[in-house]
Amino acid sequence: SRLVGALTSGSRIQMHALIRCVVLCFADQLYFALLHQKVKSTPDRHCFCIDEELSYENFYADFGPLNLAMFYRFCCKLNKKLKSCALAKKTIVFYTCGDRKKQANAAYLIGSYAVMHLQKTPEEAYSLLVSQNASYLPFRDASFGACMFNLNILDCLLAVHKALQFGWLDFSKFNVEEYEHYERAENGDFNWIIPGKFLAFSGPHPKSKIENGYPLHAPEAYFPYFRKHNITTIIRLNKKMYDAKRFTDMGFKHHDLFFVDGSTPNDAIVTKFLNICENADGGIAVHCKAGLGRTGTLIGCYMMKHFRLTAAEAIAWIRICRPGSVIGPQQNFIDEKQASLWEEGDVYRQQITEQENGSSKAAVAGILSGVEDISINGTNKNISQRKTPSEMHTEEEEEECGGLTQGDKLRALKSKRQSRASTGSISLQKPFITRQATGSKVLQSAGLAVARLVCVMVAE
After folding, report:
1. What's the sign of the alpha-carbon dihedral 420, 423, 424, 425?
2. Count of alpha carbons within 13 Å of 95, Cβ hemisphere only?
3. pLDDT (tens digit, 9 = 90+) per residue, 103-157?
4. Which residue of 101, 107, 149, 331 is 20 to 30 Å from 370, comparing CA positions?
5. Which residues are paired to 31 by β-bridges?
């Protein structure tokens, strides 16, 4: 009744519009509400909504989750309000009055905030959000066809929790301006998935230019950024659009692991990819055509093996970092690989432990035996053979398919919505200011007088 009064007093929302009111105890001051219309702040209530301010840029039918920069900006905004002396005695209501897609993103934001700043487990935060049969649309992939794999809010909260545990998510070191700059097509179209380890980027082109409205970048355009951030290895998953020597002649290691756009890799490719990444002495930049589907799929495999993420957690985190990643059958492929990659990871870590305890260095090599003679077409007798579409295709066959590939279409869509592109060169020297004062210091205020998170469900 206290919440209903807070939301209805001095507003046009009628009592009969509320079909249920769920009070979720997080602290003392903070509420989350799903409403039909906007509400105004009052002397004892401060209301805010991010439906228009933070909006997901879709490719096709995808609608979330909102990316890492948007989550960061939401956390800064909310923590600033909770720290404000002017709002200290007011109830703070974060609400959405958008459609079910907006509701899902709002719930993801407040749930992730609770995990990151209110010391809630993902399960605790999610159970509060779905109290009394409240439900949210599951997120889906960036494909045009029917959804093949549902990603729910709990998957996203679990991914955020794992990212915090492993140090991938640290807003005290996060530069939001840099993130937003480099994700744009004209500035390179790349994102870190695991900081310092994996960078996903759109495939380079022989010459920097604009083609069909999409800025294409030559390998040389990436050299300054890659060197500055200790990226030593490049892995190409699409057909050869540029000469690898342009990277290797400048001291980078370059590997080709081709499989058809939109398809899934065979076991030999997965094993070779993991072996390359496990032996790399610096950061790894992975690309396919758009740097979304094939790229996210193999990075997800590494995350499952070495960090024991579930398939859904891996997909969720990759999409939070780089929206649109892992598409169509690639989602189910990652899910099917989870158990075997967990097992491989357990063996790998056991061998590492034995090595660190004084065992022969050959212990680690034992689990990688036979890897060096694996062909990309998958002929090693020690690798279980799975018949996949990628085993029946070559680069020439992809060329002969004609028309635009999935990667072509995704890049075109991204460029179309980011229409500011005017040059094919990457602005790598842009100075970025680390906003410690407005970022990390504000984000460290999570222990303030935040007292109650409330979810209000209203008639749809």
Report:
1. negative
2. 22
3. 999 999 999 999 999 999 999 999 989 886 788 999 999 998 899 999 999 999 9
4. 331
5. 93
| Cα 102 to chain centroid, rounded | 18
**94 to each of 29, 274, 370, 398, how far by Cα in Å?**
11, 43, 56, 48
Q: In whole angstroms, what is the distance from residue 66 CA to residue 325 CA?
A: 13
User: Quick one: pLDDT at residue 107?
Assistant: 95
At residue 229, the 3 state secondary structure works out as: coil
Residue with tokens 């680690």: 364
User: Residue 364 and residue 305: Cα distance in Å, rounded?
Assistant: 15
Whether residue 204 is preceded by a cis peptide bond, meaning omega within 30 degrees of 0, is: no
| Bridge partner residues of 91 (DSSP) | 45
Could you confirm whether 25 is annotated as catalytic? Answer: no
Strand 283-287 relative to strand 231-236, pairing = parallel
Distance, CA of 309 to CA of 300 (rounded, Å): 9
Q: What is the CA radius of gyration of the chain?
A: 24
State the catalytic residue, choosing from 47, 75, 288, 301. 288
- CA-nearest of 319, 302, 305 to 149 is 319
Domains of the chain: 2-139 (3.90.190.10), 176-417 (3.90.190.10)
Task: Look at residues 10, 383, 310 and name the one whose alpha carbon lies nearest to residue 149.
Answer: 310
